[in-house]
Amino acid sequence: MARTESQYSAEPADPDRYTATNDRMYTRFARLYDTVVKALPVWRRWLSRAVPEIRGPRVLEVSFGTGWLLTQYAGRYRTDGIDLNSKLTGIARRNLAKAGLSADLRQGRVEELPYPDATFDTVVNTMAFTGYPDGAAAAAELARVLKPGGRLVLIDINFPSDGNRRGTALVEHVWKRLGDLIRDTPALLADAGLDVDVEEIGGWGSVQLYVATKPAA
Ligand SMILES: C[S@@+](CC[C@H](N)C(=O)[O-])C[C@H]1O[C@@H](n2cnc3c(N)ncnc32)[C@H](O)[C@@H]1O
To answer: Does residue 206's CB lie within 6 angstroms of at least one atom of ligand 1?
Structure first.
C-alpha cells in the first residue's frame, strides 16, 4: 500500500507557537530525555547508523538534544552543534566534557543557522526534522550550509514504503500523537537541491536514514 498525500501532516498554522510548546516540553523533560537516550538500546542503535555516513573534516549536528550522538564521533572531526533548547544544550556540554571531547555547541534555530553558506562536509540531524514547523525552510537551511559534494545525514520517522501495518501504526498512533509532523521528506530534500538515498533502518520501516548529497559545483 503506497503512502497517500492525506497521510502527511499539515504544517502548523502558528509555527512559533508550535516550536515554543515543544521547547517548554524539552525543558521540562530534559533530564529524563538524557536518561532515556542513554538507557534505550534501540534509540542508540538507530542514531548510531548515522556515524559511518559522516565525512569530515567539518561536521555540524543540528538539534543534538543531550548530545549522545556527538559523543560517538566528535573526537574525529572539527565539530559544531546547534540546538534550540538551552537546558538540553547544557546537558550536552556536560556529556561531551565527561567523555573528554569538545565541540563548538550553540543555542539557535534550524531556520536561521548562524554559519556561512557551504561550510560543512556533513550535517547530522536525528529525530528532529519531524519536530520543525516548516519542513521546506528547514531543508533549505540544512542544504545551504553544506559544501558542494557534502552530505546531510538525517534520521527520522516516516511511513514504511511497503505500508506494513506495524510501522504505519507506529507513525499514526505514536509519533503523530506525540506531535511529530510526518512529511514527504525525500521530496523536501530533493526540492532543497539534494540527491537523496533512503534506507529503512527500524521500527518496521518507520525509522528512516536519509543520506542527501549536495551536487558538486
Ligand atoms: C526528539 S529531540 C532529538 C534529539 C537528538 N538529536 C536525538 O536524536 O535524540 C529533538 C531536538 O530538536 C530540537 N529542536 C526543536 N526545534 C528546533 C529548532 N527550530 N531549531 C533547532 N533545534 C530544534 C530540540 O530542542 C531537541 O533537542
So the answer is: no
For 172-210, how does the pLDDT look when each residue is reduced to its tens digit (9 = 90+)?
Answer: 999 999 999 999 999 999 999 999 999 999 999 999 999
**How open is the CA angle 209-74-215, to the nearest 5 degrees?**
50
Give yes or no for residue 83 CB within 6 A of ligand 1. yes
- pLDDT tens digits, one per residue of 59-71: 999 999 999 999 9
Q: How many CB atoms lie within 10 A of CB 13?
A: 8
Total residue length of the chain = 217
CB of 19 closer than 6 A to ligand 1? yes
**CA dist., res. 178 & res. 175, Å (int):** 5
Strands (E) across the chain are located at 58-62, 78-83, 104-107, 120-126, 146-157, 195-202, 207-213
Contact 3, 159 (CB under 8 A): yes
Query: What structural domains and CATH numbers belong to the chain?
Result: 5-213 (3.40.50.150)
| 77 Cβ neighbours under 8 A, 6+ residues apart | 54, 56, 57, 58, 59, 122
37 lines ligand 1 (CB under 6 A): yes
The residue type at 154: L
Centroid of ligand 1 to alpha carbon of 217 (angstroms): 30
pLDDT reading at 1 higher than 60: no
pTM flag (> 0.85): yes
What number does the ligand 1 atom closest to the CA of 64 have? 6
